[in-house]
Automatic annotation (TrEMBL):
Ranges annotated as spanning the membrane: none
Entire protein: shown range: 555 to 826 of 837
Domain AAA+ ATPase, first and last residues per copy: 50-189
Taxonomy, superkingdom: Eukaryota
Protein's name according to its UniProt entry: AAA+-type ATPase
Length: 272
């Protein structure tokens, strides 16, 4: 039996167009990952070396996971997602086995992406050998580094990791040939909030008094996830008012704005 309950192969259906804003991140990933895969002859002729590992960092709810999924969809890669803390199994040796199993599956499914969310969990508490209740992180990290260093001969497996605590990532993970391409995925500015809201609005039935620009102005320092939550709360507010209601109106957004507060703080953004 596998040490991680569910190493599942996913076929994400997220497209670049499902992500509002983040033009720069999208473009960089297209270039670094899609181009070499789509035009291998040109890339090799010019002497390019494919990226193996990438780190996305930034505040919560700002589309790191969406980005990883869109990259898999758009570049035609199989997708395996795992959360850092899931790998820290309390039985000695189990976690290392899980890491090897993960890479074995990814190689079998290549070309593929392994997405490590909350990868910072693997770098914590290395000094005390990980014997502090958070699991055996040293062993997992070593196993992970070994697998990553071996990727070259082992086929077309790419590693994508995400964190909102880049400062606690073990530096060994960031060395050349490992997670050596680092991209900041930040909170949305006004035009990006409009884009995110219009993606969401396209699926909603809205009253004529709902103004997207006003909502974008009222949601400074909200994450993409917060914006989606506001829209869903507005739907509930409308239903609460009247189950026969035809559309979600501005008053429902007002109500939703009361309930959903931004999770991104100033310090959070300044920290990056
Ligand atoms: P965490 O650090 O908490 O894991 P994350 O950065 O990985 O967060 P996602 O899981 O990608 O964030 O985003 C959460 C949800 O928020 C998405 O499923 C989507 O509904 C919405 N969302 C966030 N950013 C955007 C965006 N730029 N465009 C559209 N939807 C977004």
């Amino acid at each position: 039996p596998s040490a991680i309950k569910d190493i599942v192969l996913e076929l994400p259906e997220t497209r670049w167009t499902d992500i509002g804003g983040q033009q720069d991140v999208k473009q960089k990933l297209k270039e670094a990952v899609e181009w070499p895969l789509r035009h291998p002859e040109v890339f090799h002729r010019l002497g390019g070396q494919p990226r193996k590992g990438l780190l996305l960092y930034g505040p919560p709810g700002c589309s790191k996971t969406l980005t990883a999924k869109a990259l898999a969809t758009e570049a035609g890669l199989n997708f395996i997602a795992v959360k850092g803390p899931e790998l820290l199994n309390k039985y000695v040796g189990e976690s290392e086995r899980a890491v090897r199993e993960l890479f074995r599956k990814a190689r079998a499914a290549s070309p593929s992406i392994i997405f490590f969310d909350e990868v910072d969990a693997l770098g914590l508490n290395r000094e005390d050998g990980g014997h502090n209740g958070s699991g055996n992180s040293t062993g997992v990290l070593t196993a992970l580094l070994n697998e990553m260093d071996g990727i070259e001969e082992l086929g077309n497996v790419m590693i994508l990791a995400a964190t909102n605590k880049p400062e606690v990532i073990d530096p060994a993970l960031l060395r050349p040939g490992r997670l050596d391409y680092i991209l900041y995925v930040g909170p949305p500015d006004h035009p990006s909030r409009v884009e995110i809201l219009s993606i969401k609005f396209a699926k909603m039935r809205l009253g004529a008094d709902v103004d997207i620009q006003t909502l974008a102005s009222r949601t400074e320092s909200y994450s993409g996830a917060d914006l989606v939550k506001i829209c869903d709360e507005a739907v509930l507010a409308a239903m609460r008012e009247n189950l026969e209601i035809e559309s979600v109106n501005w008053r429902h957004f007002e109500e939703a704005l009361q309930g959903v507060k931004s999770v991104i703080t100033d310090e959070m953004v300044r920290r990056y």
